[in-house]
Amino acid sequence: MQFDLKNFLQNAKTAYKTQFSVTFSEDEFGDFRVLQPAECTFTAEPTEEGAAMSLHVQAQVEGECARCLAPVTESYDFTREYLVRMRDLDDPDFELPMDAEGCLDVRELVYQELIFEVPRVLLCSPDCLGLCPICGKKKADGCTCRPAENSAPVDARLSILKQLLS
Questions:
Q1: Which residue has the higher pLDDT, 67 or 160?
Q2: Rounded to whole angstroms, what are the CA distances from 8 to 51, 85, 107?
Q3: Residues 6 or more apart from 117 whose CB is under 8 A from it?
Q4: Which residues contact 8 (CB under 8 A, 6 or more apart)?
Q5: In the chain, which ranges are E strands?
Q6: pLDDT tens by residue, 59-116
């Protein structure tokens, strides 16, 4: 979806509002994916200085717990606010996804905001204990494995630490 921001900044007298869905089934998010189309609302209001814009996103993501590999499904509901002035469009460091004609790529903006909103490390719970390094079972499921007292460290370079602790 394209929004002609340059034209809006030059000529707008009334507010603009649209609701839309964005499907991200083909997009790469790293360690998670967006399950259903994200439901979005985009508004722009003319101000004396330029335009006050707002993007509201509701999305559900799925991934794996970084500690125990259990499936994780989380819902995200957030709003981002932007204030844009005409001179911002000429700034090479302007952060919104714009083309050369001054059109804002709203779909790309939703994608970027999801990347920033969803944590890089998903957890099934904040206190997830992860997997047992000995048996591979979830520690929360009652794993009773204990490392052997005299076992060698995983990395031989760390053996000096064991000697220091003795």
A1: 67
A2: 8, 11, 18
A3: 57, 76, 78
A4: 16, 44, 46, 51
A5: 2-4, 16-22, 32-34, 38-46, 51-64, 71-84, 103-105
A6: 999 999 998 899 999 999 999 999 999 888 888 888 999 888 889 999 999 999 999 9
Output the average pLDDT for the chain. 87
Asked whether 96 and 82 are in contact (CB, 8 A), the reply is yes
pLDDT of amino acid 105: 95
Residue 95 to residue 128: CA distance in whole angstroms: 36
Amino acid sitting at position 104: L
* Chain centroid offset of residue 82 CA: 18
**What whole-number percentage of the chain has pLDDT above 90?**
49
State the pTM of this model.
0.79
| Amino acid type, 105 | D
Q: Which residues contact 143 (CB under 8 A, 6 or more apart)?
A: 132, 135, 137
- Half-sphere exposure of residue 38, counting CA atoms within 13 Å on the CB side? 32
What was the pLDDT predicted at 91? 84
The number of angstroms, rounded, from the C-alpha of 41 to the middle of its chain's C-alpha atoms is: 18
Q: Side chain identity at 156, as an amino acid letter? A: A
Which residue bears the tokens 């979806």? 1
